[in-house]
Amino acid sequence: MSAPSRGTYSGGFAWAMARDLRLAWRHPDEIILTLAFFALVASLFPLGIGAEPQLLARIGPGVIWVGALLAAFLALPGIFATDFIDGSLEQMTLSPHPPLGWAAGKIAAHWIISGLPLTLMSPLIGLQYGLTGDTLLVEALSLALGTPILSLLGGACAALALGARGGGMLLALLALPLFVPVLIFGAGAAEAQATGLAPTPHLSLLAAALIAALVGVPAAVVAAVRISVD
Amino acid sequence: MTEGRAALEVRDIACRRGPALLFSKLDFDVFPGELLCVRGPNGCGKTTLLRCVTGLTRPDAGRITWLGQSVPEDPARFRGDIAYGGHLPGLKDDLTTEENLEFSLRLRDVAVDRDAIARALAAVGLEKRRRLPARRLSAGQRRRIGLARLALDPALLWILDEPLTALDDAGQAHFVELLDRHLARGGLALVATHHNLLPPSGKVRELRIAG
């Protein structure tokens, strides 16, 4: 008999990416729902507080960030829940591929189908609020840096909430407080730009947080998955 | 592989679920070419025992040795050597039969070409349903995807939980055939079942867990 495979990080990462993206492709409605939710939330504000251009331009960056954050949160339970229910997560845990690889792959795939489309759509929403070109750019940049952090932190929370009764509520209680710093710096970047200040300090902090999350969170996800499948 | 030495040695294993002690001080060995059937009444902890051996569930006590090496020392190697089939099939409803098989083999880091996959699916009678999403398959047909997976996976140790559930007579016979082939080439199997499995080659032993 040949020596058993030990798997590779890249093998597990590529496996999870390929599979989750194909599954998402089969169900494009989930991405469309996330985007529609984002557009709806962002469109409700002008209806609620009145369409005064100066006011809208003032609150725009924050509202867009809150909308994107909530839409990203809505997409979170899907990241591990079905794999947990149908037994795929057990098979992943027993795969020779190191768990860090496939866990990171799943989170990356999740960002591609939630955070990335939200980021790409944000300039369109921003136009509704009459934001200037520079502000739109900084807003998109801050979302590009911030939404991966949401996927990472949210992924760890989603893995922890697996199997818990009322998992959805628990997930909100776990994840939303963790999202607060990301929201503050993300919205802060675009707001600084809109008021004529430099957005770089906010963006640098977001980038630093992203690096820290990239290094630390996948291991937390693996630990949470282990606890959940036990 | 050294003859005369058990490939899988389980010593003094114990597991409790909440306040209930399921089993304790359980010792058993599995030798190459051997099938160990785990038997016992419902709820006695057969599934838990199998999950403890795989490492999915952490036992409260005990040591597991695989090919002379303690499993916690090198869990990745052990994971490379086992094929686990639990109660949950691990199939995605939205992927086709073929894709499900392909992805589950890639997850096991088994490289197989499309022809081998097509042949394995034909052998379990799913050649006409290759491109059907798994949601359109019956429970027995889903089980048959699992049989095709076992046929293509070179894992040395099979750990299977009630592998005959939902399979018809032909499917059960096919499973016994696969099991026989696996044991004949020196594989090991740890199977929880209520059926009498009688593969022609290979030794069969029983492990009884009291209720």
Structure described in brief:
With 230 residues, chain A is mainly α. Chain A has helices at residues 9-26, 28-49, 53-74, 81-85, 88-93, 99-113, 115-128, 133-161, 167-194, 200-229.
What's the SSE blueprint?
The complex is a heterodimer of chains A (230) and B (211).
Chain A: H1 9-26, H2 28-49, H3 53-74, H4 81-85, H5 88-93, H6 99-113, H7 115-128, H8 133-161, H9 167-194, H10 200-229
Helix pairs in contact in A: 1-6, 2-3, 2-7, 3-7, 3-8, 3-9, 6-8, 6-10, 7-8, 8-9, 8-10, 9-10
Chain B: E1 8-17, E2 20-30, E3 34-39, H1 46-54, E4 61-66, E5 69-70, H2 75-81, E6 82-85, H3 97-107, H4 114-123, H5 139-152, E7 157-161, H6 169-184, E8 188-192, E9 203-208
Parallel strand pairs in B: 3-8, 3-9, 6-7, 7-8
Antiparallel strand pairs in B: 1-2, 1-4, 4-5
Helix pairs in contact in B: 3-5, 4-5, 5-6
Protein architecture, described:
The complex is a heterodimer of chains A (230) and B (211). Chain A is mostly helical and 230 residues long. Helix content of chain A is 82%, strand content 0%. In chain A, helix 6 packs across helix 10 (200-229). The mean pLDDT of chain A is 92. Chain B has one domain: P-loop containing nucleotide triphosphate hydrolases (Rossmann fold). Helices cover 32% and strands 26% of the residues of chain B. Chain B has six helices and nine strands; from the N terminus they run E-E-E-H-E-E-H-E-H-H-H-E-H-E-E. In chain B, the strands form two sheets. Chain B has a five-stranded parallel β-sheet with strand order 6-7-8-3-9, with helices on both faces. Chain B has a four-stranded antiparallel β-sheet with strand order 2-1-4-5, with helices on one face. In chain B, strand 1 (8-17) and strand 2 (20-30) form a beta hairpin. The longest helix of chain B is centred in the C-terminal third of the chain and has 16 residues, at 169-184. Chain B is globular and about 50 Å long. The mean pLDDT of chain B is 90. The chains are: A mainly alpha (230), B alpha/beta (211). The A-B interface holds A 1-2, 4-8, 11-12, 15, 18-19, 22-23, 26-27, 82, 85-88, 90-98, 102, 229-230 and B 1, 54-58, 76-77, 79-82, 84, 86-95, 99, 103-104, 106-110, 154-156, 185-186.
